[in-house]
Amino acid sequence: RELLDSPVDPNLAAYRELAGRSQLIDTDPMSLAHFAGLLYAAGEYAPAAERYRQLADQLASDQLKGLALFRQAMCRLHLSATDTTLRLDLLQVQEAFAATEGGVRARRKHTDLEYAEGRLVPGEAAATYGELARTAPKKDLRLEAAFKLALVSARMGDHAASVDQLMTLLREFRSGDLRTEAEALLLEQLPGLLADLVARKEYVRALVL
Question: Could you report the per-residue pLDDT of 187-196, keeping only the tens digit for each?
């Protein structure tokens, strides 16, 4: 897994120089992963996509190959975010590597894009995010999916469900980048939901919130 989680390295120029005079990077997956990650971080998406393609060709593990192809698809999206045909890359990764982290990340990103552009109805997006919140293989993916589920519920006007989902998120994820956003979304919805519950004389439920 560490192969694809290369830290940002200030020596991109050194990798580029080495690639120009030696085939070492092209034949060593670890070096190739570092180089691709550096190119991506620098916003050089076209060469990064090519390096991720090369990397995927060299990897035997479906787990790592799926991640490399996911990163390649993300590069292509950065290069042409309005070209919806490129999103087929994500769909292909999702289907070919469904049981891997790369496949799950591709499914999440594909759902994000389809929902944001109105090609996926909110109920279907919520179902996908709910499933990923339960089954995604990494904590950060489960947390992000749980937050997006609550956000979609809020946008659908189902504030009771959204509040329940946010409270579950905050209880189950004691740390994480999205806790602040989750707390803000919760506080935004609570006054209106409490007023509605009191108006309907659902006092016990209002007290629990």
Answer: 888 777 666 6
